[in-house]
Design goal:
Layout lengths: L2 H25 L9 E9 L16 E10 L6 E3 L6 E4 L3 E6 L2 E5 L5 E2 L5 E2 L7 E2 L2 E2 L10 E2 L4 E4 L2 E5 L2 E3 L7 E3 L3 E3 L5 E2 L4 E4 L1 E3 L5 H40 L1
Helix pairs in contact: 1-2
Length: about 250
């Protein structure tokens, strides 16, 4: 395969992955606590011939390859709901939830009560307090969550929400729509501030994502056109060589 075609294909593969990431961002615009992602890429150089036998020296070509998916942890818009089980962390920090595979970390605070009276995520994962699950009896009412994460009800104090932070949030790995996992143990965040009756929306901007999608699509089409022209040029060269030999 010609180097020009190989370079073009490498760029198309990365652009295709970018489109997938953008589509996922757009699909989760209404997911509470969702954090948008961006695909980073880098230029890599192809090996250069070391021989000096030819008059025209080998040129150094480059191609593009996927580097990493980067998560944008900036805070999304806060929407007041009035629901006592909707919670927001103002600033940095993550709620701790207990998934079947272990602890997971979330920004989305659109919690509910399950059949056992536990405070859980929409997926049914128990939200963790400093003493474990937070559980309410059926006859409890007037649920209140203080700014420091202390949970109370008509039955008295229920415990304090476990809110943690990471020295490097960039090492968190997204799991599903809005949960994260980490191989590094988090640290407690005693300074975290919690707001009750509100949820943190996705930090995705539809206008920004659509504009980026248009730019990526145009770039993909331009490369397709270049690859086609390269292919047509090669075909004509082969036809001409064939006619000369005949």
């Amino acid at each position: 395969m010609e180097n020009a075609s190989l370079v073009g294909l490498s760029r198309q593969i990365v652009l295709q992955r970018k489109l997938t990431v953008i589509a996922d961002n757009l699909a989760n615009m209404t997911t509470a606590g969702f954090k948008r992602e961006d695909l980073g890429s880098e230029e890599a150089f192809m090996p250069k011939s070391r021989t000096n036998l030819f008059e025209r020296r080998d040129t150094r070509d480059s191609y593009v390859r996927e580097k990493a998916t980067v998560t944008d942890f900036s805070q999304g818009e806060i929407e007041l709901t009035g629901n006592p089980f909707d919670l927001v962390i103002e600033g940095e920090g993550f709620f701790v939830v207990q998934a079947p595979e272990g602890e997971r970390y979330a920004r989305g605070g659109n919690f509910v009560l399950d059949s056992q009276g536990r405070l859980v995520t929409p997926d049914g994962y128990p939200v963790q307090g400093e003493g474990g699950d937070i559980v309410f009896a059926r006859n409890e009412h007037d649920v209140a969550v203080g700014a420091d994460g202390t949970v109370s009800s008509s039955a008295g104090e229920k415990g304090r929400l476990r809110i943690v932070n990471f020295a490097n949030p960039g090492q968190l790995v997204k799991q599903g729509k809005n949960l994260f996992r980490s191989q590094v143990a988090p640290t407690a965040d005693p300074d975290a501030r919690v707001k009750q009756g509100a949820i943190e929306r996705s930090n995705v901007s539809g206008i920004v994502e659509i504009n980026t999608m248009i730019e990526v699509t145009r770039a993909y089409e331009q490369i397709s056109d270049l690859i086609k022209k390269q292919s047509d040029l090669s075909s004509k060269a082969i036809e001409r060589l064939g006619s000369l030999q005949a």
